[in-house]
Structures are given as structure tokens and as C-alpha cells.
């Protein structure tokens, strides 16, 4: 454990420090500044115990004057106990990174400390706060979530944390607890996906704890607990007064009860179900197919010996054939789709699959799977044709959840004992194909790895204006870079008048089929595009890519950002006419040069 030594945060020094604010962190750059600002006027020292943050958390803490201690993660209670032991103040205020006391609460904390650490009878004086949670932008005032009373303030050395999850401070000596005025604002769930992730994290920890104690519950009892949890949250705790937010909380609270017992059942089974042959179906756009490939990697990592086939539309087959970990690519052509219950079902039957995962809920594919009697069918249950067709339905809503498309895909694999993390964002999923003669000749003529600009998106997302792509190309060419424009022949005709005349700018519209486009991208120095298939294919091969995105659903970076080891996203909430992204040419230009200087390294 190493201490970075920046111990002074206070604007009102005390000797010894009166109040130590203690927080444990891991990748909390989004939350930590709010917490630090909220305690700036009352803290004499701030101690940040960090467990391997990679998002700038440590730098933000140090800039605010906090003492940062790097430590291994040992679980919530053990890590918090170590953090508390590092405090030197008379009082400890233990907060989570996503919490922030309001002004009234801060004043109440100060008043409480002025009363001394013990009562006349010798009991320790403890402070309890009312915590109010902000759920996806809405304050929750019912649903059993408010007032969420938490002990957060105590004299140093009097408390230790206990519990695997929902840990609590425990006191060995008599205490008097005072409820403090104001609220501690809790920003735990910026997006619904954050709630779903926490359900899995806490559910897994709960299951391990209960499994060690030998606990088990029959499924009938679990179902009763699920129903009771929903009724408690939405009815008894008046969640209905929180409107749609209350309905969402009640539904996910019931789901959390189901999932923690599902984790426990898996532990009792000793091993998750391991199929022999799995079909993964994705029959929509190229970018969607790329974002499905983490499912292949996760299945292969968990069950190395299974066979994985990929079902795609014929136009996507050249891409699917470069996917790592796939045994066979099957084309779902118009003939099979038009005769799903006949020829399509026979196609499914020939694979002898014991599970099919429909990453895209294609009605015809599902009908063929049912006709072929594939015993396990996994996919969303939120479509009319899939409600009864899936044996293992998934109920996630993707449009505005804030979860990445690949993350949602990985959640379909829960029946295989697989849980999504963040590792999918930085892996390579495609093997670059060999370049054809046309590609080799084009690369030779350009003389150096080009910067590829792909200005079209087939209307799948908010686009960057053509004129901006043209201005960017000219700036790069004037710096000595070679710039190639890629896209379809039709996109080339629409863009023809905007292409700048410069010897370093090469129009490549309609020049290459999909396989050769992949080969060209694999040899490029950078690819720049809005949210479109060619951006996803480039980054999934490891080519540095810069994606231009909006920040609002459904066409936002939270869901549709590219994946790969060298990804940069520039996003904006501002739109120009016709829904075009309002991102400056200068910002993209500087970003391209920075990515090139880094050689693709993040």
C-alpha cells in the first residue's frame, strides 16, 4: 500500500484535524468532484482509498488536496475498515463516492461535532443522515428508498464495518444516535444499466455469503419472495407515488430478488450449464453484428470446447468470416427467411444446436428455431412474437437504459453462467483479411497508411455534415497526411461536389467490396466516422477509430460507441440543422493528430 502524501484539504486547518472525510473509490471520476466540492468547507482532511482506478479518479482527488492511498480491493467492509484506520481526525465522516451532503446536512454535521464525542454518561455520539437517491435524473421520495437512514458520522476508532454487501458500521461500546438535518444526496444510478449492473454485483456477493452458510431456498419460495418484494416496494412503500420511476424500481427490486437466488442456485449446482453447440443469430446491420461478437468471446472463454456458429444475412457473411472464435458462418438468405418453418427450420436442424441466442429477435429465425425444436432459445421477451417463443426471455429495455449494446448482448448469456463486465470494450474481435490486388495497388499509390474518412451512415445515426468532413480532409492533407474517403458508390455521388481538390485526398467510394474494405481499414492509421458499420469494423480489428456521436438516446455513445483497443469518442448534445452533429472541425482535427502521435495507444 503506498500513500501519495497529500493530506491537507481543509480551508480551516485544525491541529489535530477535527473531521476526516473518508471515501473508497474505483473509477469514480464522474462522481468524486461532486463529493469533494460538497465537503470542502467542513473537512479538515479527505482520505481517498483507491483500488486501481484508470479513469482519472486519482488525479482529481490529488488536485482537490486529498490524501490518496492506493490499496487492493478486499471487499466493501474490509476496504472501508482500512480506510477508516488511516484517518487522523477526531471525527470520521464515511461517504461513498456517489454521495454528497447538502448545505443543511453539512451544517448539521458541524453542529453535531461541536457537542463533543461523548455524552455525559460516556456513550459515543453518532450521526445518522437521511439519504435521498437520484434515479436516472429523478429524486425518489418513496418506494422504501427515502428516508434511507445511514450512520455516517462517528468519533474516530469507535466503529468497524461488517457485512459482505449493504455493509453496516458496528460499535462495541454504548452509543447515542442523532439524526442529522438535511440530506445526503445519492447519485447511485445515472442510468438504468447502472442499477442492473449493481443487481448482479450485489446478488453475486450475497449468494457467496449465503452459500458459505449453507443457505438454500426452493424455487416456489423464491417466486413468493419476488412477488412480495414487488408488492412491498410499489404498494406498501408507496412506490406508485414516484410514478414511472417507482414502477421501474419495484420491477428491478423484484428482479434483484430473483437474480440473487439464481446466483445461489448456480453455486449449489457447482457448475453452470455447458452446451455442446450454440447458434448466435444477428441478422440486422453490420455494426450490430460487430457489437454481438463479445458474446462469442465470452462463450469461448467460459466453455472452450463448445462449437459456436454465427447466423447472419448474406451481405454480412464476409465480415462474420473474419470473426475470432466462430466455427461456422451460416447465411440466412431470402429463401430461408421466406420459408422459415420449412427450409429455415431444416437449416437449424442440421446444426444440431442445443441452444440458440437471438441477439436480434428476427421473427423468422425464431420460428425456424421453434420448428427445429432447439431446446434453449434465448433472447428478448419484449416483442409480441418472442414473448412466448423464448425459453429464457430477457426483459431489458435497451433504447434508453444507458447500457452498451454489447453489454446488453452479454446479459443474454446469463443462463451459461456469464456476467458482463467492461473488458469487452477493449478487445479485438476481427481478424483482418488478406488484401486483394485492388487494395495493395491503392495503398501503394497513396504511399503511406491513410487516414480514412467515412462520411455516410445510411441514416442510422446523427451524422457529421459533409462540409465538415471536407474541411477536415483538407486540413489533414495540408499537414502532409494522405486522406481516403470510403463509402458506397451512391454515397460517393452524393458527396462528389464536396470532395476537396488536393493531391493528398483520394476518393475511394464504391472501390471495394466488404472484404477488401476491411483489409484497407486494417492498414489505415486512423478511421473517422459517425456511428456506422465501417467504424465498428475498423476498431474491432484494432485500427484506431474516432467516433462522432450525440449524447441522447437512441443514437448515443453510451449504447453505440465502437469497441476495440484504440477507440476515441467525441460526443455532443448540440445538433445543427437536419440533426447533424455540432462538433467543430478543429476538435476532430486535433484529436486525429493526437491519436496519430500516440500510435493508437490510449
Radius of gyration from the alpha-carbon trace, in angstroms:
28 Å
Helix content: 25-40%
Shape annotation:
globular
Largest sheet: 11 strands, mixed
Distance between the terminal alpha carbons, to the nearest Å? 26 Å
The assigned CATH architecture of the largest domain is Alpha-Beta Complex
Number of domains: 4
CATH hierarchy class name of the largest domain: Alpha Beta
Query: In terms of per-residue confidence, which ranges show pLDDT below 50 for 5 or more consecutive residues?
Result: 4-14
How many helices? The count is 22
Number of E-state strands: 25
CATH topology of the largest domain: Spore Coat Polysaccharide Biosynthesis Protein SpsA, Chain A
Percentage of residues in strands:
15-25%
Structural class given helices, strands, pairing? Answer: alpha/beta
Q: Please, what is the CATH homologous superfamily of the largest domain?
A: Spore Coat Polysaccharide Biosynthesis Protein SpsA, Chain A
Mean pLDDT, to the nearest integer, reads 92
Report on this model:
The radius of gyration is 28 Å and the shape is globular. It has four domains: 2-189, Spore Coat Polysaccharide Biosynthesis Protein SpsA, Chain A, CATH 3.90.550.10; 192-269, no CATH class; 277-389 and 420-426, Glycogen Phosphorylase B (Rossmann fold, 3-Layer(aba) Sandwich), CATH 3.40.50; 437-598, Rossmann fold (3-Layer(aba) Sandwich). The chain is 37% helix and 20% strand. The model is unreliable at 4-14 (pLDDT under 50). The strands form four sheets. Strands 1, 2, 3, 4, 5, 6, 7, 8, 9, 12 and 13 form an eleven-stranded mixed sheet that branches. Strands 16-15-14-17-18-19 form a six-stranded parallel sheet, sandwiched between helices. Strands 22-21-20-23-24-25 form a six-stranded parallel sheet, with helices on both faces. Helix 6 packs antiparallel against helix 7. The protein has 602 residues and is an alpha/beta fold.
Amino acid at each position: 500500500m503506498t500513500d501519495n502524501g497529500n493530506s491537507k484539504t481543509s480551508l480551516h486547518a485544525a491541529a489535530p484535524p477535527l473531521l476526516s472525510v473518508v471515501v473508497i473509490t474505483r473509477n469514480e471520476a464522474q462522481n468524486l468532484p461532486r463529493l469533494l466540492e460538497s465537503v470542502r468547507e467542513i473537512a479538515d482532511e479527505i482520505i481517498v482509498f483507491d483500488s486501481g482506478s484508470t479513469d482519472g479518479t486519482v488525479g482529481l482527488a490529488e488536485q482537490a488536496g486529498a490524501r490518496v492511498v492506493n490499496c487492493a480491493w478486499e471487499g466493501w467492509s474490509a476496504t472501508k475498515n482500512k480506510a477508516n484506520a488511516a484517518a487522523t481526525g477526531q471525527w470520521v465522516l464515511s461517504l461513498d463516492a456517489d454521495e454528497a451532503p447538502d448545505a443543511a446536512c453539512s451544517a448539521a454535521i458541524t453542529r453535531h461535532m461541536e457537542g463533543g464525542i461523548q455524552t455525559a454518561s460516556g456513550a459515543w455520539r453518532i450521526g445518522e443522515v437521511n439519504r435521498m437517491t437520484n434515479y436516472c435524473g429523478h429524486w425518489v421520495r418513496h418506494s422504501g428508498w427515502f428516508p434511507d437512514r445511514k450512520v455516517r458520522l462517528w468519533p474516530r476508532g469507535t466503529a468497524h464495518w461488517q457485512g459482505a454487501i449493504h455493509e453496516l458500521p458496528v460499535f462495541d461500546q454504548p452509543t447515542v444516535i442523532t439524526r442529522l438535518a438535511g440530506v445526503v444526496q445519492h447519485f447511485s444510478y445515472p442510468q438504468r444499466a447502472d442499477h442492473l449492473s449493481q443487481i448482479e454485483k450485489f446478488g453475486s456477493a450475497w449468494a457467496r455469503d449465503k452459500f458459505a452458510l449453507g443457505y438454500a431456498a426452493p424455487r416456489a419460495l423464491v417466486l413468493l419472495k419476488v412477488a412480495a418484494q414487488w408488492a412491498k416496494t410499489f404498494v406498501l412503500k408507496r412506490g406508485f407515488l414516484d410514478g414511472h420511476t417507482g414502477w421501474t424500481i419495484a420491477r428491478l427490486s423484484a428482479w434483484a430478488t430473483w437474480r440473487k437466488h439464481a446466483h445461489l442456485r448456480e453455486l449449489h449446482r457447482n457448475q453452470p450449464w455447458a452446451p455442446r453447440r450454440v447458434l448466435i443469430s444477428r441478422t440486422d446491420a453490420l455494426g450490430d453484428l460487430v457489437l454481438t461478437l463479445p458474446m462469442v468471446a465470452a462463450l469461448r472463454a467460459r466453455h472452450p470446447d463448445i462449437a459456436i456458429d454465427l447466423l447472419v444475412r448474406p451481405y454480412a457473411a464476409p465480415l462474420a468470416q473474419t470473426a475470432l472464435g466462430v466455427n461456422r458462418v451460416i447465411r440466412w438468405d431470402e429463401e430461408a427467411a421466406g420459408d422459415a418453418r420449412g427450409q429455415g427450420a431444416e437449416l437449424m436442424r442440421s446444426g444440431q444446436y442445443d441452444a440458440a441466442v437471438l441477439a436480434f429477435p428476427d421473427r423468422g429465425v425464431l420460428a425456424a428455431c421453434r420448428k427445429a425444436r432447439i431446446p434453449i432459445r434465448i433472447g428478448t421477451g419484449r416483442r409480441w412474437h418472442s414473448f412466448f417463443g423464448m425459453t429464457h426471455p430477457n426483459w431489458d429495455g435497451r433504447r434508453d437504459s444507458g447500457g452498451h449494446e454489447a453489454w446488453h448482448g452479454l446479459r443474454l448469456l446469463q443462463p451459461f453462467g456469464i456476467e458482463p463486465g467492461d473488458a469487452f470494450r477493449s478487445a479485438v474481435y476481427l481478424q483482418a483479411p488478406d488484401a486483394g490486388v485492388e487494395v495493395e495497388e491503392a495503398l501503394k499509390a497513396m504511399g503511406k497508411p491513410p487516414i480514412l474518412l467515412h462520411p455516410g451512415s445510411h441514416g442510422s445515426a446523427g451524422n457529421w455534415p459533409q462540409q465538415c468532413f471536407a474541411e477536415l480532409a483538407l486540413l489533414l492533407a495540408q499537414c502532409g497526411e494522405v486522406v481516403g474517403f470510403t463509402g458506397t458508390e451512391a454515397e460517393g455521388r452524393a458527396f462528389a461536389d464536396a470532395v476537396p481538390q488536393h493531391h493528398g485526398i483520394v476518393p475511394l467510394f464504391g472501390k471495394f467490396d466488404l472484404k477488401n474494405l476491411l483489409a484497407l481499414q486494417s492498414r489505415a492509421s486512423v478511421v473517422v466516422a459517425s456511428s456506422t458499420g465501417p467504424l465498428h469494423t475498423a476498431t474491432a480489428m484494432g485500427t484506431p477509430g474516432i467516433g462522432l456521436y450525440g449524447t441522447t438516446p437512441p443514437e448515443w455513445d453510451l449504447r453505440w460507441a465502437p469497441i476495440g483497443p484504440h477507440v476515441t469518442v467525441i460526443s455532443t448534445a448540440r445538433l445543427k440543422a437536419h440533426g447533424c452533429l455540432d462538433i467543430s472541425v478543429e476538435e476532430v482535427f486535433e484529436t486525429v493528430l493526437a491519436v496519430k502521435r500516440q500510435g493508437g495507444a490510449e
